[in-house]
Amino acid sequence: MLLENFDAHGSEIIQPTQLFQPLNDFPKIIIATFFGDLFRKFVSDNKLEKIINLGSINGNMNVYRYHLDGIDLGIIMAPIGAPSCVARLEELNALGAKHFITFGTCGVLDSTIDRGQIVIPTTAIRDEGTSYHYQPASDEIAIDSASLAILRSTFIKNNISFEEGKTWSTDAFYRETTQKFVERKNAGCKFVDMETSAIFAWSKFRKVSAYPFFTTADNLDSSEWERRSDFEINIPTSLKVAFCIAKEIVEGERIE
Q1: Stretch 15-40: mean pLDDT, rounded?
Q2: Rounded CA separation 115/195 (Å)
Q3: What are the domain boundaries of the chain?
Q4: Which regions of the chain does DSSP assign to beta strands (E)?
Q5: A Gene Ontology CC term for this entry (predicted)?
Q6: pLDDT tens digits for 41-70?
Q7: DSSP H helix total and E strand total for the chain
């Protein structure tokens, strides 16, 4: 199969640095949220400084600067889906970022997991295409141990209740069939998302640090799909969690 043909050493025809040169004062830590309304409100309420526009034919995608207790952060809205998400992370890395905190919602494959629960994905099933361009073919990929330690330490220190476990990263949420659900649950998956396995693979290939977490939303473990509206989730709490992670990164890595 084509996805098994991983080219680890081939020269890249198009490189992110051809489009975006490193900026001396670009933040080393990026917070990338999939929550569009949260992102827009936070930027507006805090009158954030725009650093750069990672625009495409889809339109603008601005990176903003935010100062958190002396920590310089980059804030961006992450695009949904592995290819677009990883492409933006590539560009942020080219500009100078090294640590990437990503957060959004995930579905659950276990009905006992409540909505609104903070989740650490420790392993991801690679049911998407992007990761195979960054790591050799395999069914699963794990989070970097140092990143996992940072996430766990953050949540424990700040008394944040959390779940952790395997996620199913898929490109096609409208093709999450009953049979696939059973197979993934039997394989140990608790969650389902669209980007995590690609983020893990990309971060390992580029030798940068990724810290993904979720807030649980819809439930697949039912006779009928349970949407569990996002309005029932305390989304602003996720941003506070991201800030806690950033502080833990600085404490552990001594980032200025």
Answers
A1: 96
A2: 20
A3: 24-253
A4: 29-33, 49-53, 62-68, 71-77, 99-108, 118-127, 140-142, 162-170, 189-193, 209-219
A5: cytosol
A6: 999 999 999 999 998 899 999 999 999 999
A7: 7, 10
Q: Two tokens at 211?
A: 């810290």
Mean pLDDT over 69-91 rounds to 98
Beta bridge partners of 71: 68
Neighbour tally for 185: CB within 10 Å: 17
Residue 169 has pLDDT above 80, yes or no: yes
CA 77 to chain CA mean position, Å: 11
Question: Residues, the chain, total?
Answer: 256
Assign 128 to helix, strand or coil: coil
Residue of 196, 140, 188 lying closest to 171 (CA atoms) = 196
Specify whether domain 24-253 bears CATH 3.40.50.1580: yes
Put simply, whether the predicted model's pTM sits higher than 0.90 gets the answer: yes
Q: What pLDDT sits at residue 232?
A: 54
